[in-house]
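Kindly review these tokens for lecture notes.

. . .
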Amino acid sequence: MPGENLSRDEARERAALLSVDGYDVSLDLRSAVGDEAGDGPRTFRSVTTIRFRCSEPGAASFADLIAPSVTALSLNGRDLDPGEVFDGSRIALEDLAADNELVVDAQCAYSRTGEGMHRFVDPEDGEVYLYTQYEPADARRVFANFEQPDLKAPYRFEVRAPEGWTVWSNGAGTLTDGVWRFAETKPVSTYITCVTAGPYHYVTDTYERVLDDGTRLEIPLGALCRKGLAPYFDSDDVFLVTKQGLDFFHEHFDYPYPFGKYDQAFVPEYNLGAMENPGLVTFREEFIFRGKVTQASYEGRANVILHEMAHMWFGDLVTMVWWDDLWLKESFADFMGTFANVGATRFKDAWITFANRRKAWAYRADQLPSTHPITADIRDLQDAKLNFDGITYAKGASVLKQLVAYVGQDAFLEGARRYFKRHAYGNTRLGDLLSVLEETSGRDMGAWARSWLQTAGVNSLTPQVLLSAEGLVDELAVVQEAAESHPELRPHRVAVGLYRAAADGTLERYARAEVDVDGPRTVVAELAGAEAPALVLVNDDDLTYCKIRFDTTSLETLKSGLGSVSDPLARALCWSALWNMTRDALLPARDFVELVTRFAGRESDIGVLQMLHAWAESAVTHYAAPDWRLRGAALLAECAERELLERTAPGSEHQLAWARFFARTAEDQGGFDLLRGLLDGTTTVPGLEVDQELRWAFLEPLVVHGLAGEKELEAELARDDTASGKRHQVRCLAGRPSAAVKAQGWAQVVESDALSNALAEATIAGWGQSTQRELLAPYTEKYFAALTRIWQDRSIQIAMNIVSGLFPSLQDSKATLDAADAWLAGHEDAAPALRRLVLEGRDDLARALRGQACDAGAVNQG
């Protein structure tokens, strides 16, 4: 049998043959507690009954199950020999009847990788916590099923759990005679069923609303987390955003929330940000903040809550047929998360964050060799796993933002309402959505879809300004360019803003025109005769998805006065454009660093400021000429210390952001002494509260530079003997500047699978320090030698983490580029998903080398 990696063709064949009437799933999780297992994996009993029909009686098919063993199997009352029909991932089903019942009694394995039924032991109190995570195809690690999104069915779950535990699932549950039984679900796909079990801290609330028809809707709300995080759990704010979101979506979707209760579980060692299981959304527990964080963190959490809530309609109620149309749920949820954040919550500037942060993710992904159309060609499950990327999420959301402008918000929302009612509990493709939008808007959606959904790549828009003898705009045009690899020139609806210096020195917009850019050059006739601008901002107000470029005058204006741009969205767009120019080797990295050191301290939007910090570090680490790196690092450290100690308001979130940035950039004895003083209390900064999370942030650079070690880390863990503290300690331990430490970290991640997903992730994060390039150099050859084995031996999530996380990007030389090319040339038959990850790492490295050449050239030109 082909094994775990279900192909699209196999899924189509099975969907044409089978339809599923329902599942009964019985899980016995009492084995989760007690002594650790012996040589084999710790397992639990899973008994599944599937009732399904076959359109061609006598035909053969298969069910999915990944399990160490199957105890018993029966098909239509006929016992089957597990040794003959089960190969470890599939159950062969022969001679099917018109109506069928399959019963599978299996021993399934608890997971340490965040896939399937994840088991976590809290080091703080020894308590065990369980939760499931399935997307795209890991429900088969917990119960037998037909693991593809278009074979929807209702589910009835029952769970036996250790005494004293609570169990949650998609439906409401009751405990009777030691068994938790859950209400039957609506027809849903396998990957959004779920179970969470353990001694979780649980709080409740209720959402109420009178619907348009006068009926009262009441939704029980719940929120849960580990007991150790309960003191930090601000469930009131979670419920506030939840209620605001439910109000917003009910007002706009005209389709009541269809899944009964609404629980939200914050769980440990989670691989994703969150998952939209109907009735029981799961989040990574890092969204519970143990220390002080900026409003950007609260905005981000609200955005994720609303993103997952949007999925209740886009994805859960109506689901894509196959992962090709993953955008039908993720792009919509990503757009709706920000749309609702702005429309319903206190985070009214969320579109600035979207323009600055989410689009940056999209622009990077869209320039990789692995870029793909928003409606992608997903051949199999491995392809699907890798396509939860910046294209599917952020580019798709950006394009939907344009679509709303193109068809009008009212037409867009009316289209969504018809889409839900027409396809409720069903599966759809691209054409199903386009057809309702054509109905509501009267526009032909075909050409728009071909340009924006079915082609890859990002266009660049550059202004051209010709002035008259009188110093007025004679002609202003927008030039559109595309990469050779993706030459599509798209239609763009853009705003072009003209800026000049106001009396108070700020750069203010004094003229604006909207224009349809189509083709290589478009004249903006409305701006002819305007006063000559100091700055031309193409895509002002962020109406389209493109890379912004600047004419010479505008670029010089920004170099001298970027901090004076008064509008925060316009300023964020300028920063994003300058960062794209740095990555594209059009702006020397040292110029970008200089802009950050001069103007970041004037940035009012905290999310933009934190993004600038990350970009500046990346500029020095990857894009600066090697002989300028130390100088660049020193400039960032000096800037961070100056802002922290002299300029930011005591106790402000900007002070906190600069404190964290200072910790990451400290590079001389004075900086290290300040960090040590803040840790031991001999030094204070007015207004700065050094909580436990900040203590770890201050300790890590001391460890990385060899000024603190295992002893100090043990003492800090004793202060913070929690799961979060353990992850911090493991990351710091891997960051110590020692060849023996690097060898140990490599062995723990690559040669062993003993670490859980979270601790492996922490080890990878600590291992690759930019100041330790020489220590890491010996691992380039080892990395390429181990790739095939890693992909074969590990689960796909862990393999992805290792392949991406350990790519030798810090060995930024042509020799490393050649090694990547040699591996790719010698492994043309490797799994496409593995080749994609290596290609992406190789492309990032090549881009860094081009950036370094640009930065070095700036010196030569000078």
